[in-house]
Amino acid sequence: MLVPVTIREVMNPTVETIGPDLDAAAVAELLHGKDIGSAVVVEDGDPVGIVTESDVVGLVAEGYDADTVTAADCMSTPVVTIDADDSIEAAVDRFREHTIKKLPVTDEGDLVGIVTTTDISYYLPHFTRRTTTSSGSTADRHHRERVDTAYEREGWEFESLGPHDDRIETGDVVKFTKTLSQEDVEAFAEASGDTNRLHLDPDYAQGTRFGRPIAHGTLVVGVVSAALARLPGLIVYLSQDTSFLGPVDIGSEVTAECEVVEDLGNGRYRLTTRATADGDEVIDGEAVVIADPIPDTA
């Protein structure tokens, strides 16, 4: 099921607060005693900074007296916060922009919780994925015509880009587009056994948070699989990490785009995988595949 997730749903509502005048030794004792990694510094009810374990350790390592230095002296400020009703994607952007790992959460100005990169990674596994600079040359990439699929349909579109027609290379990109029709949804429900009424019963779906029927999440991921099948070679799925970013309406045109970002050796490759529905991003993640040679029986 595809559903946008807000900070309110993933945050820890228990957040430890301290005053700016608390000495660093007491801060360290609090963090150790509570087995927590940070405390939010609050003044007159407003968050003004955040102190982490590394802040205190760094201060002591520099030779400061932990009994005389205060939280205000070692806290990170101004504090970066996020609203409880913001999306988890907004939190990812803030983590990356400010190079931080913890965000105090506010609701109409009140401190209501804290969210960390670990909390987010449970919902967006690709947030913690390895980043690898593409080493493949893109200068001589061209549109590859051959695909080893059993058949193609009118209305399906694909584009496979890379320097070689017979093998994969880092930097290769493949795209596949199709419309997910009512017939597709019904056929998938029958084939998979997933007859959740959210996808099949308009009256039932009207009372849900979506207000209408939506396509199965796994059916949408299937478009990613279809894109991968149009890479050179015999492509075999090994793994797929997927984050669902929004619902897909039945009848939407879905485009999956996959890029080879790492050669893992032994014919294995890591790819980023994303999909859009009528232009809106609905899937983000990564996959690992094996690219075997085309069999002689082909």
Please describe what this structure looks like:
The protein has two domains: 7-128, Roll (CBS-domain); 142-292, Thiol Ester Dehydrase, Chain A (Roll), CATH 3.10.129.10. A hairpin with a 2-residue loop joins strand 11 and strand 12 (268-277). The chain is elongated, with a radius of gyration of 24 Å. The protein has helices at residues 7-10, 24-34, 53-61, 71-74, 88-98, 117-121, 182-192, 197-200, 202-206, 217-228; strands at 17-18, 38-43, 46-52, 82-83, 102-107, 110-116, 142-143, 157-162, 173-179, 234-244, 253-265, 268-277, 280-292. The protein has a seven-stranded antiparallel β-sheet, with helices on one face. The protein has a three-stranded mixed β-sheet with strand order 1-2-3. The model has no long low-confidence stretch (mean pLDDT 89). The chain contains ten helices and 13 strands. It has 298 residues and is an alpha+beta fold.
Outline of the structure:
With 298 residues, this protein is an alpha+beta fold. The strands form three sheets. The protein has a seven-stranded antiparallel sheet, with helices on one face. Strands 1-2-3 form a three-stranded mixed sheet.
Core attributes:
298 residues; alpha+beta; CBS-domain; 2 domains; three-stranded mixed β-sheet; 10 helices
Give the count of structural domains: 2
Number of strands: 13
Which regions contain 5 or more consecutive residues with pLDDT less than 50? none
Q: Alpha-carbon distance between the termini?
A: 37 Å
Radius of gyration: 24 Å
CATH architecture of the largest domain: Roll
Could you say what the CATH topology of the largest domain is called? Thiol Ester Dehydrase, Chain A
Overall 3D shape: elongated
What's the tally of helices?
10
CATH classification, class level of the largest domain: Alpha Beta
Strand share of the residues? Answer: 25-35%
